[in-house]
Design goal:
This protein is α/β, with parallel strands linked by helices. It has eleven helices and 13 strands. The chain folds into two domains: about 190 residues, 3-Layer(aba) Sandwich (Rossmann fold); about 160 residues, Glycogen Phosphorylase B (Rossmann fold). Strand 6, helix 4 and strand 7 form a beta-alpha-beta unit.
């Protein structure tokens, strides 16, 4: 199958020095799609820092001769519409034009509960430079759009997605995008070392604040703890940083190696994720060998840990209490058991076949 992959509003690159997570979901999905079986082309704006490895093909999004109808299907990974400084974004404008001028099926890959596929015109209407365009040239037939969402609750996904009248797509199918990171996990990340005596931090979290909803939870669980060595890294804008060491963000390809410095972590969600989305952070932390706790509001039915409530927390003193009252050996054994239950059962061949069959059926 001939597949085109696009990330609206962001350039795709798999360079090691890329600190943006914009390409992470695509990189992991490619391992399941298998570019040695499918004919896959990355469609993006190419810069001097871009890196598109073989056997992937590349096409420039700004190429006027680009015709999306040469593809069997387009995988459009979720994005937000941004015009930094209020000026035009040529790549984004060209994307909508190309989608309008084609008849190819669009599979919108929703790995972020906040990011729906939005119409472009309402976002540019009223800007001075919008006089150069018309609404019609950005219109996309909704019958060509299918939302392949990470969310498990499709009713909840539909309600959240269609809160406003500027969204595109109304057919939803669930696919667990977060598990794609497990493809070839041993080859890329190696077996974790569960010797916690070598780990510098007791508790660690990496990511972005995203909204006040998540910021408050990060501060609640991670700030002000005594006798616990805490490290936070990433795009975190917090009011309270008491007893916390702050570090800068790292490349998404180095995230797991960073997390290997910590004994434990607590996975934080927000209103878009609760009882719906399992996050990439869950699997990244497990792959790092961390004892990975989950804010109980994120998974109230204890589905991730198979109805076991010992790994769910709702009070900021829970993890410090565990660290202070349990031996390191016990923590290591619990983390190792969680790792075995969630990671080692993954079968890439079966998942790849399932993923490709899903796309073929949609097509």
């Amino acid at each position: 199958m001939k597949i085109g992959i696009i990330k609206g509003g962001a350039n795709i690159t798999f360079s090691r020095n890329n600190t943006s997570a914009a390409s992470a979901d695509i990189l992991y999905a490619l391992r399941v799609l298998n570019p040695y079986i499918n004919d896959i082309t990355i469609i993006t704006h190419y810069t001097r820092n871009s890196y598109i490895p073989e056997p992937l093909h590349f096409k420039e999004i700004l190429d006027n001769d680009l015709n999306l109808d040469e593809f069997d299907i387009i995988l459009l990974f979720n994005f937000s519409i941004n015009f930094f400084g209020g000026v035009e974004n040529p790549s984004l404008i060209q994307l909508y034009r190309k989608l309008h001028n084609s008849s190819v099926l669009i599979l919108y890959c929703q790995t972020d509960g906040q990011l729906s596929f939005k119409k472009l015109w309402p976002m540019i209407e009223g800007r001075d430079w919008a006089l150069n365009y018309t609404e019609k040239e950005f219109e996309i037939d909704e019958n060509r759009i299918i939302i392949l969402t990470q969310g498990r609750d499709l009713i909840k996904c539909t309600r959240q997605y269609n809160k406003f009248d500027d969204t595109l797509g109304n057919v939803f199918i669930h696919y667990p995008w977060e598990t794609c990171i497990l493809a070839k996990w041993k080859e890329f990340f190696g077996e974790p070392d569960f010797d916690y005596s070598k780990r510098e931090y007791d508790l660690m979290y990496g990511g972005a604040t995203r909204n006040s909803f998540r910021k408050n939870r990060i501060e609640y669980y991670y700030s002000g703890l005594e006798n616990v060595k805490v490290n936070l890294f990433g795009n975190l804008r917090l009011d309270s940083k008491q007893n916390v060491e702050m570090s800068s963000k790292v490349s998404f390809q180095d995230f797991i190696y960073k997390m290997k410095q910590s004994k434990t972590t607590i996975i934080i969600g927000d209103e878009f994720y609760e009882n719906n989305f399992f996050t990439l952070r869950m699997y990244e932390s497990l792959l790092a060998g961390c004892l990975t706790f989950i804010d109980s509001r994120l998974d109230t039915n204890c589905i991730f840990y198979k109805n076991s409530n010992r790994m769910y927390v709702n009070h900021y003193e829970t993890v410090p209490g565990i660290l202070n009252n349990n031996s390191i050996i016990h923590l290591q054994e619990v983390a190792k058991q969680n790792f075995i239950e969630k990671i080692t059962i993954y079968d890439l061949n079966k998942e790849s076949e399932k993923f490709n069959e899903l796309i073929r059926d949609i097509k």
